Structure formats: C-alpha cells, structure tokens
Amino acid sequence: MSCILHIETSTEVCSVALSQDGASIFSKEDFKGPSHATVLGVFIDEALSFADSHAIPVDAVAVSCGPGSYTGLRIGVSMAKGLCYGRNLPLIGLPTLEVMAVPVLLFHDLPEDALLCPMIDARRMEVYAAVYDRALHAVREIRADIIDEQSYAEFLEKHPVYFFGNGAAKCREKLTHPNAHFIDDIHPLAKWMFPLAEKAVAVEDYKDVAYFEPFYLKEFVASTPKKLL
Q1: Rounded to an integer, what is the distance from CA 195 to the centroid of its chain?
Q2: Residue 170 per-residue DSSP state
Q3: pLDDT tens, N- to C-terminus, the chain (229 residues)
Q4: In 3D, which of 99, 109, 101, 111 has the Cα closest to residue 73?
Q5: What is the Cα–Cα distance from 161 to 219, expressed in whole angstroms?
Q6: CA-to-CA distance for 131 and 97, rounded, in angstroms?
Q7: Closest among 171, 83, 157 to 126, alpha carbons compared
Q8: What is the distance between the alpha carbons of residues 145 and 38, in angstroms, rounded to a whole number?
C-alpha cells in the first residue's frame, strides 16, 4: 500500500497528514487560521521527517483542490506541485467537497437513501455546494448557490438531506424542510483524504503537475465583489 502525503488548505483550517495501509499515520492541524503561508511548510517538514524516521518512502502527494479560498488553494496546490517536482512524485487532486463527506460517511449512521450536501462558506447567503449519494456519486455537480427557502427543494421532497461544512450553519433558518438535517463540526481535513487518495492510486488517476490548477468556481469569483472574497 502506498504512503501518501495529504495537504488541505481550502478553508481557514490548514492540515497535513500521512496515510499508509488504509490509515492515517501522521496528522497536524491548525484551526487558528487562515495562516497557511506560515504553518503549511512546517507541517510538511514534520510529516516528511516522520516518514524518514520510520523509513517510509512517500509515494504520492494528494492535495484538496477546491472549491474554497482562492489564496488557501493557491498555497496548498503550489506546495504540492513543488514537492512532486522536487521528489518526482505523482500528484493526486481531490475535490474538497468530497473530502468533507468522508467523516460523515465513516462516523454517522445515515439512511440508505440519504443525500449529502457539503457546503463551503462563500459569504452572505452564498455557498459552494454539491449533492452526493452515499457512494459519493454526484447527484448534482458543484455550484455556487445563493440559499433561500426553496434551495434543494427537489432533493428534500424525496430524500433526507444532510448539510454540513462551514457554510451549513447559516442555512438552518432557510432550510426548514423536515428532511433537512445538519451535522456540526465537519471540516475538510487532510486526515480524511486517504480513502479518496488511495482509490485514485489504485486506478492511477494522477494529475499533470505542470498544468494542474485548483478549482475556484471562476465564473462565480469573477462576478463577486472583491470585498466578499
């Protein structure tokens, strides 16, 4: 089984992890941010030192690639690409919203027909969100949503929908359908990236290091006042 270095910087939380044999073997997190430019390099050095001290070769680098903070994603992806160039390692890019769904699937007892709606705060009543089934198949692709009382009505009428992430709390007053459920304290963290990253390794789903860019939802960003970003 591969040893993978994971980097997550899409929100105010900065985190780095190592995984091997289907488990996280090293993890560092900073919830005081955003301070990615200061702490990310330190966390990566500590992770690599841990791997070296245990004679574990790092086989790939996985990075959470958005949507999320423009600055945070740039820092994380740039660091991941630098490591891949310097160590001749393959690069794995993972959608941030799928990473957020991993702890929900691992630690929460959900109905068979449940849908998952991870949300990243995009200021005001706007969120970056997608809708997934329990197999993480996209029922609705990633979009920038402006939340009102009718948001996600087509899903809530037929399924229990679980909302989580740093954009979900502000939606409680708007999403009052009986099928709307909220899960607190879910963050995209590097230690939750390993199931998705190992799946990518198994099928050799690697990114082109030279051309890989994070996913910003560029059309939304271009139309949003800079003071909101």
Answers
A1: 12
A2: G
A3: 689 999 999 999 999 999 998 899 999 999 987 889 999 999 999 999 999 999 999 999 999 999 999 999 999 999 999 999 999 999 999 999 999 999 999 999 999 999 999 999 998 899 999 999 999 999 999 999 999 999 999 999 999 999 999 999 999 999 999 999 999 999 999 999 999 999 999 999 999 999 999 987 654 444 444 433 3
A4: 99
A5: 27
A6: 9
A7: 171
A8: 31
Q: How far apart are CA 6 and CA 1, in angstroms?
A: 15
| Distance of alpha carbon 104 from alpha carbon 92, whole angstroms | 22
Count, residues in the chain = 229
3-state secondary structure 53-104: HCCCCCCEEEEECCCCCHHHHHHHHHHHHHHHHHHCCCEEEECHHHHHHHHH
Ramachandran angles phi, psi of 29, nearest 5°: -140, 145
**Strand, helix or coil for residue 52:** helix
Tell me how far the alpha carbon of residue 205 is from its chain's centroid: 17
Question: Helix or strand or coil: residue 190?
Answer: helix
User: In the numeric block, which tokens belong to residue 20?
Assistant: 């091997």
Structure tokens, 229:
């970003």
Rounded distance between C-alpha atoms, residue 42 and residue 46, angstroms? 6
